[in-house]
Design goal:
Length: 307
């Protein structure tokens, strides 16, 4: 295509559509490329209770569609397709999709990150029906119930602590004999009367009728297996950033996230990273939309100085 946009955004989650809204409202020409549907991971979340302005909560799909409508109201364009390659070497950036090529003065990477899964049979089918990947999103459904948290890092420890204040019983299943989480989480977890640790263990099977009702847990040392009745399973074994396309061009940290500070600038002039794909301390919808606004601001600044 001969048209050169002011901004191309790759990814239609909350950070992407916030960047699109801010940039287009500021008079920039904006194209957003989304592979599936508006909202990204947020769009797969049933109820979001921790996004300001919705006292009764809001489902992620509706919020994603509203974010898209807000950006398009100011002139942002959306195209659906999969990005095949990018070329950020020149001043004008090129993005190639399965439906065509697009040119832009700036690019915002907002491809997000997906939770790592256990890889068990029926895990996909039971997602949202007892199997979850975000305790702060879905923990409220398990007040006075029994839940299992899988993992041993900071996220798993945070999830177990959070759920211990809601659930009747919390099992923390970890493959090692000690937590990898920082020491600050150890004492509060050990002191929580309703938290039970299952060390050197792994979840090996899910049981259900319409919803999850039990899991198999195997002792990795003895090989013994037990069945635990549970209302919910929270998988917290890390996330996988969608950065494969950019690993040759952008600086990534050891976990694969794009290295970009609070300005969202990357190591390439005119390329920004926003939302869960960026190296950051907290990944929530509210922090993603903040990134989108910041990326739009610094992209506009870059255009004003360079074009």
């Amino acid at each position: 295509m001969d048209k050169i946009y002011d901004m191309i955004i790759i990814g239609g989650g909350p950070s992407g559509y916030t960047a699109a809204m801010y940039a287009s409202r500021g008079g920039l020409t904006v194209l957003l490329i989304e592979k599936m549907s508006p909202g990204g991971q947020m769009g797969l979340t049933g109820d979001i209770d921790n996004y300001p302005g919705f006292p009764e909560g809001v489902d992620g799909f509706t919020l994603g569609m509203n974010m898209q409508a807000g950006a398009e109201r100011f002139g942002a364009e959306t195209v659906y397709g999969e990005v095949i390659s990018v070329d950020f070497t020149d001043k004008i950036k090129k993005v190639v999709t399965d439906s065509g090529e697009y040119l832009s003065k700036t690019a915002v990477i907002a491809t997000g990150a997906s939770p790592r899964k256990l890889g068990l049979s029926d895990e996909e089918r039971l997602t949202g029906k007892g199997v979850h990947y975000c305790a702060h999103c879905d923990g409220r459904f398990y007040k006075d119930k029994t839940v299992i948290v899988v993992g041993g890092g900071n996220s798993a420890a945070q999830d177990a602590l959070y759920l211990s204040r809601l659930a009747k019983k919390v099992y923390l299943v970890h493959r090692r004999d000690t937590l990898r989480a920082t020491k600050i989480y150890h004492d509060p977890l050990m002191q929580a009367e309703n938290v039970e640790f299952l060390w050197n263990s792994a979840v090996t099977a899910l049981h259900s009728e319409k919803r999850l009702n039990a899991v198999n847990v195997r002792d990795l040392q003895s090989g013994e297996e037990q069945t635990l009745e549970a209302d919910g399973l929270f998988v917290s074994i890390g996330r996988e950033p969608a950065t494969e396309l950019f690993k040759e061009d952008l600086h990534l940290n050891g976990a694969g996230y794009i290295v970009a500070d609070e300005t969202t600038r990357t190591n390439i002039d005119g390329v920004f990273a926003a939302g869960d794909v960026r190296e950051k301390a907290l990944r929530q919808v509210v922090t993603a939309v903040a990134d989108g606004a910041v990326a739009a601001h610094f992209a506009e600044e870059y255009i004003n100085e360079n074009f």
